[in-house]
């Protein structure tokens, strides 16, 4: 059995008898992801369960983190909870309702939308139904009043990130809900405008709200148009994430835009288009001629790459292409380093040898866990090791984003930032570049 963590407890006076009894109990075991790292889809529900558990175990509200007290707190918020339910939610054996995520945020004193946004980001680009923030019932007699309140906040310019999540969740929940085309356009334009001026959790919540609009049939057209206006605005520099949302869209115009941007110089535009195009390949949006164009484009990107970071976009596309592309690439004029990188991307979905990825991520994750304060005895966090490995080395932009998002909203964020900075200053130029990207 894994050894409980010993270094991650705060400096405190000698334990009382009650403390001693608690510490002699079985250490808390956070869930792990059972899927292979090269699998197309990760253990998504286990990751959300991990986020719940690690947020509670490492929570700053020490009294509320105890399971018995936590159950009482959940009940006070109208959540039917007991020891068994918490165990199922925090182990991944049961889906986590949006109302439970919202309740965890309230009890643990987190920013509204912190866990909800991360859960939506984890599930949002999969075939699973995205978690919806809070229990919003379109059939309720209060639905119109609620919509009025949300629209008032949004169009009044005072909407917080969780308000945007709630509005977009309500608008896209039912395909029969009707809005005037101008209203869809106004919502999409205001949301993308705020996204371009946001950072941190405010950015994440708006990004995930925009994902809901892009996926929904009624709002997709105005949402995509607003994304196009955003990414072509010369005043907006960071456009990777908005462009990535076009992976959800089968519109030929969106595909043409992405292919055109792929010819751009290495940077945010090319990275965002590569992310979206790789996602579209996985979704089966492309046939023979378009796959051929992607093959040629990725080959040219590899041939002209000057640094390892310049190869990231091409490798992400290559790893998503059908296996037939391998035989054609091996006959191309590529040097040994690029051939090795292609093999790693295809076989292991990583940018370094698996042994290196495992060693670096395990060492880094152990230090992060050791230095993160908790009042509970905890087993080694295997999910943190997995997320750290994906954050640094996974070939898929989408998987790196999901790992980054989960760690960024977890209590591990401060220590992880320190460790990534240390790694970015190391002697291994390739790993340092990946750490900076992370």
Q: What's the gist of this structure?
A:
This protein has 438 residues and is mainly α. The protein contains 24 helices and no strands.
What attributes does this structure have?
438 residues, mainly alpha, 63% helix
Structural class estimated from helices and strands: mainly alpha
- Tell me how many strands there are: 0
Quick one: overall form? globular
Q: Major sheet, described briefly?
A: none
Percent range for β-strand residues: under 5%
Low-confidence stretches: 6-24
Look at the structure and give the mean pLDDT. 85
Radius of gyration: 23 Å
The succession of helices and strands, N to C, reads: HHHHHHHHHHHHHHHHHHHHHHHH
Number of helical elements? 24
Helix content: 55-70%
Please report the distance between the alpha carbons of the first and last residues.
32 Å
